[in-house]
Design goal:
The structure holds 2 protein chains of 2 kinds. Chain A is about 60% helix and about 5% strand. Chain A contains 49 helices and 20 strands. In chain A, strand 19 and strand 20 form a beta hairpin. The longest helix of chain A has about 45 residues. In chain B, about 40% of the residues lie in helices and about 15% in strands. Chain B has a 7-stranded mixed beta sheet with strand order 4-3-2-5-6-9-7. A two-stranded antiparallel ribbon of chain B has the order 1-8. Chain B is elongated, with a radius of gyration of 23 Å. Classes of the chains: A mainly alpha, B alpha/beta.
């Protein structure tokens, strides 16, 4: 041990001689009293490293034994003494060094300026050491305080006071010579981890100083009080966390080493950097604080992804408990200048939070210094952690807290801000409050609700609610709370395993055998993967060569190893037989890990308990056995959160993983699977030679000159899976509908599921700019409320229908009824021997094509079948439940239910399966509406009036009743409807109603649809005050419901006849093929700006669907038709010529054509000249949510059945425009006359259609 | 380290054994050049010798190439982005490389435009030139020329690079099927080892150069499209960048791709001439695509791609060629993977056996294998029982089909 010490000392001495040499070259400096302390600082820095290094080693190597401890104490005393001596001996030398540096850089800076500049910088530095000596001091005082030690402390105290006075004196000087200052400071401080190039914030000197003083204060407090951090630190050390102790001690040791190593290069770098560096610090630093906010924005745009990566890396490290890694990572980022620019205060806060939890105040102080070095300002979060830490230390001095609070005020922050804006975890809030209470015993945080602004358009919905009340659900409070518990359990598990509907099939021997085989394999794979994961983690952990680089290691630590393996095994089971693109597979895996991590993070932060409390209180609003409320769910929830503010915050806090990270993580896992999962090649056919073959293959497919990585399962695996027909399906929990009403959306980041993270707006993966814009958006409240309204609708399953569908599904499926048949029904893939000379090359080519088509068909059938299997299995699982669909929206404001497979926007089959959970008596006219709905579903009588439709329904009652009674064995009238399954459901409902003793009192849960007719054209006609156009889209009251599509089709047919007569070939070919369906989508989308190109594609699709249309003419015909549709529309909407002209003119002038909507915002129009005769309505694809948000809550009381609340969220301005047109214009406000329309093509909806509920 | 040296040595050894691509320096293009005047007489003589009976005497003098300015003006009228040979000297040079005066091959000229090269070819004594023009704009003048000659020139409204589309639908010229074109021209199918029946000369369209080249090499291996009619020789102007990729050698990991391997395997590739972009008349104002990577792209290179007569002699057939295509593409999707891993993927444990048969090192990378070696490797694989059982064979059918020849 003594040898070590000698070495260390020798090093110091050698260094000293080095300095001496330097000093020779430099002119002697003036010895103003101010410089003295500076020199001391410099000396200490130099001497400290080796000494401290050694001390750490000492205490590390000799644990706990008493005499050993004593020895340590003595040694450290000695060291301190020695240090003090060195200090006394060396001052002059160091001063000279500073001069050397300065002279090297620029001539004019005088020694005085330099040294004075150093003042504020050095002060914190100085005290960095004090805690250390303080610690030892305390230890020493326990046994016996030596004379030397006493002297030392005295000296130190003197110096402290001197230095505290120092900055004030210096300040003036500094202001005069900022350049000298910045330079001086650069060579000044050498904290652990910041060994070189310190960038001090030059301009906000007062603040900078004050801040420095805070950290000083913290340190001072620590060192002077005997109980402060020292005690805390001591407890930490003595506590059971032996491991932590080890790691903590190792850390600084390493740092120390690194520092000494970095020393020389650092100095060189300083020199080289000085020229540009000084300019840099001068020019950019002073503006820094003001720029900060802008910086955040710019950074979000430019390097948002990198920042997000760093942040999520840090958080993952912290979550996994790897504090050392997080800390050294932050330091390494901090050290590299290019990386440091990316950091902002929040990154440092993450580390502070960790230290606050441990109660190590001096670590926090250290990070405050780092912050200052980086030229950043501490924000609320930083103060919050500081206060928290003070709150955790029982003996913390009130003086310190007061100082901290005052500091906050100086920075323009108040304690109230702290409580209203900070995100708290676990008991952080209570700790902060405790700290504040120490100095202000009767402080109560005042929380005020954010004043919500809503667009003027919907203002009255919010202001005039005197005689309104929020509708109750048909559940008691207790029921709702119980449901919440179920849902919570579900989401805590993250995955849910349910019986597939195929479970009903009998198990054959072969199936049983295959299942057994698969299960065995899985068990084996699990073991192999577990081991592989552990090994690769070990490698990753140790090969982190450059620690500022991000790697995947922390992301592989956030969950338990077993959970990763489960995710991987699950993905093997759900891999489609034709393989999956590597990127998609990786993304899914990564996303699954992320979801699980989020849920666990919430558990760790103790959010769950609080969520339960608030949700339970929230049920007051919804339950039927509580009093009426006039507030909306989001308002109520917000109020509850404010009331129950103690404990962790519910909102915010979690960081999204950047897209690239989750994909990378996923691909890493896929790679592991490809490398490790093997099976014997003879499992199915013993005739094969036994070899160990991989089950997954990484192949490439080629699209033109691009290549796409693909993961393909081995055919044997597919065979096994298909034969086993496993009856369990495992889903992510968010795939299932919710068992309780969803959490209302109260902000962009919070709502929908209980724990599973969910997005308010669906975006393309990785498109962060959308999120940034969305967060900036102020007027979202109406949108959120609309989504909540949709989400609060309870649903149930139509059980009789489900049984019929499952029976067909498990039998052989039916293409006609849209029930996909099983793969056994698929066409056999023809086999042929390519080498056979009997075939000609043309025949071979033909057969090849057949094979390809058969394969394609098979994979299509498989995916359709699986989709149906998922939907039906989920429905079957929920058959006795009542459930809710949480909603979100896409970038246009179109709303969607979050659960992907089974929801009310699905196909005919899934829609037919859903009923409202809450029934209503039919009332006097309800039965009639049911009948009209039935006719609408058949797609017949499109052009009849409502009376006509009702009449028709009455005339076919026999068929209806027959369909209801014998759906599969009767006349099967329902099977010919456009939407057969919904029609069948409606038949059954009608039958039940008719046969009930009193149809008016029959309770029905059946949904009846209402729809607008070509909404886009409606707006357009309204804009142009075009009466004829308005009539054709039912904006004018009319006897008959008008059908614009049929009208256009008719017009096109007229053109066609004319052209056919004039001998045009394609017009002749098209005879008899022009129907409403062919033109419908194009007509509908014309107003949304569909081009001739897109329109042609739409028509081409329709024509291809017509079986007997000659395929070779599709191209020409679609070309011809799209032209005709456009001119037909032009013909029909004659009254709108003015607008067209205006629109064109504007487009030609290349100016923005705009108008003001009532909300006062101006609306720009798309500028591009389009080939369409219509001005393009400013569809908000680009302007997104920012333009204007308008919600038109039209509560359509669907007469018969239920209160179907159609919330039509329309981000687009056109609704506003329509409203204003009507309000100011000559037309009386006419709303869509409620043309009932049943037939809606699913595909069309996907593409363009209106989604209404 | 030692393995590196080993690998380098191995590479050198093998390269010495393998056929090398003839570079321009290895052959003097002007060596056998005949003077224009002698070529002219030659043409006239041979014309007399072959079909002198039908040829009017007044056509003995050479065709007028037209004013350069006039030709430039006509070329610039074209709306598509195209390059034209207008400079008579350039046309002369191309003609000399083609040696139209000897040999019985038909010359297909793709997109002649104003017809400078066409006339030069005819002047040099070409006996049969087929001008395949895709743009109606130039068609009339060419047809007028066709009418003035008797039989040496045929003009077809057809775009050579759009032959045999994959999709279905009614075709309109300039898109057409090969069999129609060849039947109309009266060219019949020929055996692979026969003489070269057709020489194609033209400028590869800049749009999607690589895609077009890929499509053509697929057709070559499967003996589809024009290659049903024998070994069609291509003399194409290709951008320098693509040319360098085409002839890249193993070890150039960035450029050595599947399509270079396939072309080198199938053809003797010869660089005939390099001509700067400026010598061509460009019909659109658009800027030339500048080379973003390190490859130079200053020239258009006249490259001769002559299919090897012995390509199908060693076990490769048009039917199993698709497997070869697949294999090469899968191997070279990444150049820095070990070949043995790829082989083991298709048939476990047989990789090392194959490599030892090939005399290669165990750790050879896919980017270090010569085209000829890939061909031999494939022939070995095709013979081995283990591989034909492999499901790789099933994969093959769908993939190249997707973008290859119908």
């Amino acid at each position: 041990m003594s040898l070590l010490r000698v070495c260390a000392f020798a090093k110091c001495v050698s260094r000293r001689t080095l300095f001496d040499k330097c000093a020779v070259r430099v002119s002697p400096a003036d010895r103003c009293p101010l410089c003295v302390s500076t020199r001391d600082g410099g000396v200490r820095r130099i001497s400290e490293t080796p000494l401290r290094l050694q001390r750490r080693k000492v205490s590390f190597m000799i644990p706990k034994r008493d005499d050993a401890k004593k020895r340590v104490v003595e040694q450290s005393q000695l060291l301190d003494v020695l240090k003090a001596r060195i200090q006394q001996l060396q001052p002059d030398v160091v001063l000279d060094v500073h001069h050397a540096n300065v002279q090297f850089v620029k001539a004019p800076s005088s020694g005085r300026g330099v040294s004075s500049g150093k003042g504020p910088k050095v002060a914190p530095k100085e005290k960095t050491d004090i805690p250390k000596s303080g610690k030892t001091l305390k230890a020493a005082s326990k046994s016996k305080t030596s004379r030397w030690m006493e002297k030392l402390t005295r000296e130190k105290k003197n110096k402290l006071t001197k230095e505290e006075r120092l900055p004030q004196k210096i300040q003036k000087n500094v202001k005069e010579k900022p350049s000298g200052k910045s330079k001086g400071s650069k060579s000044g401080s050498a904290l652990p981890g910041t060994s070189h190039k310190v960038i001090s914030s030059a301009a906000p000197l007062v603040k900078g100083r004050a801040r420095t003083k805070l950290s000083d204060e913290i340190r001072a407090a620590v060192s002077s009080t005997e109980v402060g951090t020292t005690a805390a630190a001591a407890t930490v050390h003595k506590g059971p966390k032996g491991k932590q102790k080890a790691s903590k001690k190792q850390g600084p040791v390493k740092e120390g080493k690194r520092q000494t190593e970095a020393k020389e290069p650092a100095e060189e770098m300083e020199k080289s950097l000085d020229q540009q560096g000084s300019r840099w610090t001068l020019s950019s630093n002073p503006q820094r604080p003001e720029e900060e906010e802008e910086d955040v924005e710019v950074a979000a745009a430019a390097c948002g992804d990198v920042q997000l990566s760093i942040r999520s890396y840090l958080e993952a490290c912290v979550f996994a408990g790897d504090v050392e890694r997080a800390h050294s990572f932050l330091l390494s980022q901090h050290r590299v200048r290019s990386r440091r620019k990316l950091l902002n205060t929040d990154f440092y806060n993450i580390m502070m939070r960790v230290w606050a939890k441990k109660g190590t105040l001096n670590q926090i102080g250290r990070i405050f210094i780092l912050l200052e070095e980086a030229g950043l300002k501490p924000n609320l979060g930083s103060y919050c952690t500081a206060l928290e830490c003070m709150g955790r230390n029982p003996g913390c001095q009130p003086k310190l807290i007061t100082r901290c609070l005052r500091q906050m005020e100086e920075d323009g922050l108040s304690a109230d801000d702290l409580f209203s804006q900070c995100v708290f975890r676990q008991d952080e809030r209570d700790m902060v409050l405790k700290a504040v209470h120490l100095v202000q015993p009767d402080y109560k945080p005042r929380l005020h609700a954010r004043a919500a602004q809503c667009p003027s358009l919907v203002q009255e919905f919010y202001t005039q609610r005197a005689d309104h009340q929020y509708p109750k659900l048909d559940f008691t409070q207790e029921e709702l709370q119980e449901r919440f518990r179920q849902q919570l359990r579900l989401e805590e598990d993250c995955t849910v395993t349910i019986d597939s509907v195929e479970a009903a099939k009998p198990v054959t021997d072969h199936m049983a055998k295959m299942r057994k085989l698969l299960a065995d394999h899985r068990a084996q794979w699990q073991k192999i993967l577990l081991q592989a994961l552990r090994e690769s983690k070990m490698i990753l952990a140790n090969t982190n060569t450059k620690d500022y680089r991000l790697n995947l290691y922390p992301y592989l630590c956030v969950l338990e190893d077993r959970e990763y393996v489960d995710i991987m095994i699950q993905s093997v089971a759900s891999l489609p037989p034709s393989g999956e693109s590597l990127k998609i597979l990786g993304r899914d895996l990564g996303h699954r890990v992320y979801t699980k991590y989020c849920v666990q993070q919430k558990q760790q932060n103790q959010v769950v308990e609080k969520l339960r409390n608030i949700y339970n209180a929230y049920t007051d609003l919804l339950a039927k056995d509580t009093k009426e409320c006039i507030v909306l769910p989001s308002e109520y929830w917000g109020r509850l959160e404010r009331e129950q503010s103690s404990g962790p915050s519910l909102q915010g806090g979690e960081t999204h993983w950047p897209y690239i990270v989750s994909v990378e993580l996923g691909i890493y896992m896929v790679d592991m699977m490809v490398k490790n999962l093997k099976m014997n090649s003879d499992v199915l056919n013993p005739a094969f030679e036994r070899k160990l073959i991989p089950i997954l293959y990484h192949m490439y497919t080629f699209r033109n000159t691009r290549q796409v990585g693909f993961i393909k399962p081995h055919p044997i695996l597919i065979q096994m899976q298909q034969d086993a027909m496993e009856s369990k399906l495992t889903f992510d929990s968010y795939v299932m509908p919710m068992l309780c009403p969803p959490v209302p959306w109260t902000s962009v980041k919070f709502g929908a599921y209980l724990l599973t993270p969910s997005k308010l707006m669906r975006t393309v993966e990785g498109a962060t700019q959308h999120e940034v814009l969305l967060e900036k958006c102020q007027n979202l409240l109406p949108v959120l409320d609309s989504l909540n309204q949709l989400g609060n609708c309870a649903w149930s399953i139509n059980k009789p229908l489900l049984d019929i569908i499952i029976s067909i599904f498990n039998d052989r499926g039916s293409d006609k009824l849209d029930i996909p048949p099983p793969l056994s029904e698929a066409p056999k893939i023809p086999h042929f021997n390519a080498q056979d000379p009997a075939y000609t090359s043309a025949e071979k080519a033909h057969m090849k094509r057949d094979v390809i088509n058969a394969k394609k068909k098979c994979s299509e059938m498989h995916s359709l079948r699986m989709d149906a299997l998922y939907k039906l299995s989920i429905a079957n699982h929920m058959r006795d439940e009542i459930f809710w669909f949480p909603h979100n929206m896409d970038f246009r404001g179109r709303t969607y239910p979050c659960p992907p497979y089974f929801n009310h926007l699905g196909s005919d089959v899934t829609r037919a399966l859903l009923l409202f959970a809450e029934g209503k008596p039919l009332g006097p006219k309800g039965l009639d509406w049911l009948k009209i709905h039935l006719v609408n579903l058949t797609g017949l009588k499109k052009r009849s009036s409502l009376e006509g439709r009702l009449e028709y329904a009455n005339s076919i009652m026999e068929d209806v009743l027959d369909s209801a009674d014998n759906p599969l064995n009767g006349n099967k009238w329902w099977m010919n409807a456009d939407e057969p399954w919904q029609a069948l459901g409606c038949c059954m409902e009608i039958a039940n109603a008719v046969r009930s003793p009193d149809p008016t009192n029959f309770i029905s849960n059946f949904p009846v649809h209402q729809d607008g007719s070509c909404n886009g054209l409606q707006h357009y006609a309204a804009l142009g005050r075009d009466v004829i156009g308005a009539t054709s889209v039912n904006l004018m009251p009319c006897e008959m419901p008008q059908d614009v599509y049929s009208g256009v089709a008719q017009q096109v047919e007229e053109f066609r006849v004319r052209d056919a007569q004039s001998g045009m070939k394609i017009a002749q070919v098209l005879e008899g093929f022009i129907s409403r369906k062919v033109v419908k989508q194009t007509v509908m989308t014309v107003v949304y700006g569909v081009t001739r190109y897109g329109g042609r594609l739409q028509i081409e699709k329709r024509l291809k669907e017509i079986e007997d249309f000659p395929k070779e003419h599709v191209w020409d015909a679609s070309h011809y038709l799209v032209r005709m549709v456009f001119s037909g529309l032009k013909e029909m909407f004659t009254g709108t010529r003015e607008i067209q002209a205006e629109g064109r003119l504007a487009a030609n002038r290349n100016t923005t054509h705009g108008w003001c909507v009532s909300s006062g915002e101006c609306v720009g129009m798309a500028q591009s000249e389009s080939i369409i005769p219509f001005p393009i309505i400013p569809w908000c694809q680009r302007v997104c949510v920012c333009v204007c948000v308008c919600v038109c809550v039209c509560v359509c009381v669907c007469v018969c059945v239920c209160v179907c609340v159609c919330v039509y969220v329309c981000v687009c301005v056109c609704v506003c425009v329509r409203t204003c047109c009507f309000l100011n214009g000559s037309h009386p406000p006419v709303f869509p006359s409620g043309e009932l329309e049943g037939g809606r093509e699913k595909k069309m909806e996907e593409k363009m259609g209106m989604v209404e509920v | 380290m030692s393995t590196q040296i080993w690998r380098g040595a191995d590479l050198m050894m093998r390269s010495a054994c393998c056929r090398t691509i003839r570079s321009p320096s290895s052959e003097q293009p002007g060596a056998e050049r005949t003077s224009p005047s002698s070529a002219l007489t030659h043409r006239n003589l041979s014309a007399v010798a072959v079909q002198g009976q039908s040829r009017p005497l007044c056509r003995y003098d050479s065709l007028d190439l037209g004013e350069v300015e006039e030709n430039v003006r006509r070329a610039l009228a074209c709306k598509k982005i195209r390059h034209f040979i207008v400079n008579p000297d350039l046309a002369e040079l191309v003609t000399q490389h083609l040696r139209p005066e000897n040999g019985r091959s038909v010359i297909f000229e793709c997109n002649p435009g104003p017809g400078v090269l066409t006339r030069t070819l005819l002047n040099a004594g070409a006996q049969r030139v087929v001008a395949l023009e895709g743009d109606k704009l130039f068609l009339r003048d060419l047809q007028e020329l066709e009418g003035r000659l008797d039989g040496q020139l045929e003009v077809v409204h057809c775009d050579y690079f759009k032959l045999d589309p994959i999709g279905v639908g009614n075709l309109r010229p300039p898109v057409m099927y090969t069999d129609k074109l060849f039947t109309d021209l009266g060219i019949s199918e020929a055996s692979w080892t026969d003489d070269i029946p057709v020489k194609v000369v033209g400028i590869l369209p800049l749009r999607n150069e690589r895609g077009t080249l890929l499509k053509m090499v697929y057709a070559l291996f499967e003996r589809q499209s024009v290659y049903r009619y024998g070994r069609v020789e291509l003399n194409l102007f290709i951008s320098e960048k693509e040319y360098l990729k085409l002839v890249s050698r193993p070890g150039e990991m960035m450029q050595y791709r599947a399509f270079s391997v396939l072309w080198q395997m199938a053809c003797d590739i010869e660089l005939l001439h390099k001509e700067p972009w400026e010598s061509f008349v460009k019909s659109s104002k658009q800027r030339m695509p500048s080379s973003k990577n390190q490859l130079p792209n200053e020239h258009l290179c006249l490259v001769r791609l002559r299919p090897r007569a012995d390509l199908f002699s060693g076990g490769l057939t048009p039917t199993n060629a698709s497997t070869l295509l697949m294999m090469v593409k899968q191997c070279l999707a990444k150049r820095k993977v070990k070949l043995i891993d790829r082989l083991n993927l298709w048939s476990p444990d047989s990789g090392s056996k194959l490599l030892s048969e090939m005399g290669m090192l165990e750790d050879i990378l896919t980017g270090h294998v010569y085209p000829e070696e890939y061909l031999r490797l494939f022939q070995l694989i095709d013979k081995s029982q283990e591989f034909t059982q492999s499901w790789l064979y099933e994969e093959i059918l769908e993939n190249p089909q997707r973008e290859g020849w119908g």
